[in-house]
Amino acid sequence: MLDDTDIRIAADWLRDARRVVIFSGAGVSAESGIDTFRDDGGLWIDFPPETFATVRGILRTALLRPRRCAEFLHRILEPIAQARPNPAHQALAALDRHVETIVVTQNIDGLHQQAGSPIVHEIHGSLLETCTLRGRFVKLLNRAGLMQVSGAMSCAARSLFPRLRMLWAMRPLVGLSRHGLVRPRVVLFGEALCEPAWTESLAAARTCDLMLVVGTSGVVLPAAMLPSEASANGARVIAIDPDDAGRCDLWLRGAAGAVLPLLLRRAFGETTEL
Ligand code: OAD
Q: Does 42 contact ligand 1 (Cβ within 6 A)?
């Protein structure tokens, strides 16, 4: 249950802040229909990351279990292709009208930008972009394009020739271009975080006076260092999460889509436009 005193304290801190960093994870997009990773029914429960989220693992799965690989790609692509920003993304975008706000997100769904947040560092990359193997940007994709790939993956998973169908379906995301081999710009386990997003995120965490940690279990390093970096440099840290949010100065317990609009209204007035 969300405590009214906690919301009042958080609203006071937000009003006093001069530079806010939002550190977001899968929970902020849960109300847009995108599964988290580690909650009940989360992506890593059905598709273990050792098999599906390392370069070696995903290549091996594509080779040896193409049907399963196509199922995984369909499961990850479809919700992102269909997603729209929810009230949490919208409230965070509206916050920038009151105080300088930098979003650092582990999410790869592009929803903070779509909601209107002006500065978004995607430290784990974006499923809406492709890049070379060296991380050089190649092209932007749109949700309709992702939806087509997702539909083709679903067909591949049921096909008599799943490997061929999957390879064909992946053409918008993986292949050869004049820049060399191309892949989705997403960070897999064991890979470095996206640059310059990570360096800029660390700098932002060290210079903000308030950090809102929204919808992340905070277990994946090095991203999970950011709240302690902020705290070590004097910032207050507020966590917004229905489950125990770990170390923070204040925990607002609840779904981001309910808590954030309430917090904004309490901080900046009931007529605050979201
Ligand atoms: P997790 O699945 O680990 O954590 C999701 C968090 O969101 C949990 O703390 C939930 O309690 C919370 N949550 C669920 N619904 C929520 C809601 N409606 N509002 C607010 N919070 C809610 O996801 P992440 O912490 O984002 O990285 O995972 C971090 C990284 O692990 C991901 O970026 C991904 C993954 O492996 C890579 O793949 C490199």
A: yes
Check if 24 has its Cβ closer than 6 Å to any atom of ligand 1: no
Give the pLDDT band (50/70/90) at residue 267. very high
Given the CA of residue 26, which atom of ligand 1 is nearest to it? 26
Residues 211/21, Cβ–Cβ less than 8 Å: yes
> Residue 12 in 3-state DSSP?
helix
pLDDT in tens, 211-253: 999 999 999 999 999 999 999 999 999 999 999 877 899 999 9
Q: How far is the CA of 29 from the centre of ligand 1 (A)?
A: 9
Helical ranges in the chain per DSSP H: 4-16, 27-30, 43-46, 49-52, 55-64, 66-82, 87-95, 111-115, 143-158, 162-169, 197-207, 226-232, 256-268
Q: Which atom of ligand 1 is nearest to the CA of 42?
A: 2
Task: Confirm whether 112 is a catalytic residue.
Answer: no
Give the pLDDT of residue 177.
83
Q: Is 67 helix (H, G, I), strand (E, B) or coil?
A: helix
The per-residue pLDDT for 3 is 86
Peptide bond into 48 cis (omega under 30): no
The angle at the Cα of 191, spanning 216 to 106, to the nearest 5 degrees, equals 20
